[in-house]
Amino acid sequence: LPASMYTEIQRERPDGGNILTHPDYIDGNPDLIKPKKLLNPVKASKSHQELHRELLMNHKRGLSVENKPELQRVLEHRRRDLLIKQKKEEEEAKKLQSPFEKELLKRHQRLDQLEKEQEKQEDHAPEFIKVKENLRRTSTVTGDEK
């Protein structure tokens, strides 16, 4: 019996199209349960329906979806120009540095690094040494004042 149903379907479609497009059952058989089409949860959502309605309205009016509001375009253009200007200024500042300024910057970085190393060494020193150094400083200050 299933083979005869297949042959009937083939007779209905002489073009030999895809079998999946037509169901494997015959509409005249009342014993078979017909499948129901599932709802797409995305299309069923209110937000999707409202968006689709808005797109259709814009299409009817002739408005392009890709076009942004004028204010947004102007603000983005200004932001982009500002970033480009800042980058150019930074590049020019780097180019305009003289060898003397570069050398000063290197020395300043080295001094900062040495200060950090000294702070680390002082942190590792025992507490009584730190207190003793503080006492020496206070004693020399009071001795100078007299």
From TrEMBL:
Q: Which gene encodes it?
A: Fam107a
Which keywords does UniProt give here? Answer: Actin-binding, Cell cycle, Cell junction, Cell membrane, Cell projection, Coiled coil, Cytoplasm, Cytoskeleton, Growth regulation, Membrane, Nucleus, Stress response, Synapse
UniProt name for this protein: Actin-associated protein FAM107A
What are the protein's GO molecular function terms? actin binding
Q: Mind giving the lineage of the organism this protein is from?
A: Eukaryota, Metazoa, Chordata, Craniata, Vertebrata
Q: Where is this region: Disordered?
A: 107-146
Q: Where is the composition biased (Polar residues)?
A: 137-146
Q: Which GO terms describe its biological process?
A: actin filament bundle assembly; actin filament polymerization; regulation of actin cytoskeleton organization
User: Known Pfam families for this protein?
Assistant: DUF1151
According to its UniProt record, where is this protein located?
A: Cell junction, Focal adhesion; Cell membrane; Cell projection; Cytoplasm, Cytoskeleton, Stress fiber
Basic and acidic residues bias: where?
A: 107-136
InterPro entries with a match to the protein in the record:
FAM107
Top-level taxonomic group: Eukaryota
List GO terms (cellular component aspect). focal adhesion; neuron projection; nucleus; plasma membrane; stress fiber; synapse
Grouped into one coarse class, the protein's main location is other
What job does this protein perform? Stress-inducible actin-binding protein that plays a role in synaptic and cognitive functions by modulating actin filamentous (F-actin) dynamics. Mediates polymerization of globular actin to F-actin. Also binds to, stabilizes and bundles F-actin. Involved in synaptic function by regulating neurite outgrowth in an actin-dependent manner and for the acquisition of hippocampus-dependent cognitive function, such as learning and long-term memory.
